[in-house]
Amino acid sequence: MTNNKKAKLLALVSIVFFSVSGGPYGLEEIISSVGPLNSLLLIVLLPIIWTIPETMIVAELASSYPIQGGYYRWVQISMGRFWGFMEGWWSTLYTLIDLSLYPILFGTYLKILFPSIDSHSIYFIQLIMIWSCAIINILGIRAVGSILTSFQIFILLSFAIFIILGMNHLSFDFSSVLNSHHTPTCKEMLLGLSIAFWNFIGWDNGSTVLHEVDNPRMNYHKALFICIPIIAFFYFFPTLVGVCIHTDWQSWKFGEFTFIANSMGYPILGTVLAVGGLLTSLGLFNSMLLSSTRIIMTLAEDKLLPSVLSLVHSKYQTPHIAIIFAALAYSVLILYGFETLIGYDVFLYLIAILLEAIALVILRKRNPDIHSYFKIPFGLFGVYFVVGVVSLVVLFMVVINFSTFHGDLRTSFLTAFLMFSGVPIYFWYEKLRER
Questions:
Q1: What value, to the nearest 5°, has the Cα angle with vertex 277 and ends 257 and 281?
Q2: pTM, two decimal places
Q3: What value does the mean pLDDT take over residues 89-108?
């Protein structure tokens, strides 16, 4: 791919931003699940105990090994074809589920703008959204990056205005939030944690398009570290303003920021925030479609998925067949509910990121002197510490997940199926490859 078709740093920042966040949309149901104080604590703590360690792992791998296919290739070259495939398989399942959530959110904000719209019309519009994004993705990473940059500016400006205007409605007496007592049930806790993690995961997604990025060794880790403070700021302050103004925390749901803006007497801002919700859904979907289809293409190139999925468009050099296949899958998955999907989404992502952490340890020991613009400091001790923190967080979430649903046979079966379904597929394709 020529340099004039590659994504520059600004576009890459927007791609990473929408791979992870898209703004504070999606945080609302954490409030109703675990209460305002617990929600604010999660927003503060997760960047420290999860985001920074995870981004350090991804930043070193991307800077040292700027390979198209990103995390799939990192695991493959460190641990072999089987674990590489499992990383790609889990990530593909995770992104299939994750991408199905954004048309659902799109429909939620559409309903806010047009309350009388019926479910059949919403589904039809969701299909238009999916296939429009597919066309944009076929046009290439520059088209995706340009659109995401404009979306990001609109969303961040909207919430900057929300914070400034909201401050006029605050007494700056936070005692009601600090003294709020809400003891969530196990299922509420898992839902709250899952939504919180869902809003802080995805830092490795852009790594799958590293050969479509200008100077990936230098720019990818820069984009990661630029996005961390932006995302943390625009999560914490709109939420803090919101919970102080709208104190019926049990009733919080997606679209709450629009409701709060209307209650403050700013209906135009409420409409702007609802439009921002639509743009966030579009941005997240575009960014994730970009990264997920490169994994599908790379697996097909390695003869671990049907070879037709590796075909590249003659003009735009994009995996158009993989994009069309993914769009078909999402057109079906959006018929499922949000809460049904999000737990599996986070679970699959966490076990996939654990393989990336192990891959980093192996590659650092194997190639200690490899040229890199970013390395976790303090040598192997620093690597072990960061990987240890990530592993403990993953273990905690897995234990919470299984302890909550240990008696639910349907959930346990589906979780086990998602974890191990790739094993027979891998051996099937390996046997075909040997022949």
A1: 145
A2: 0.88
A3: 84
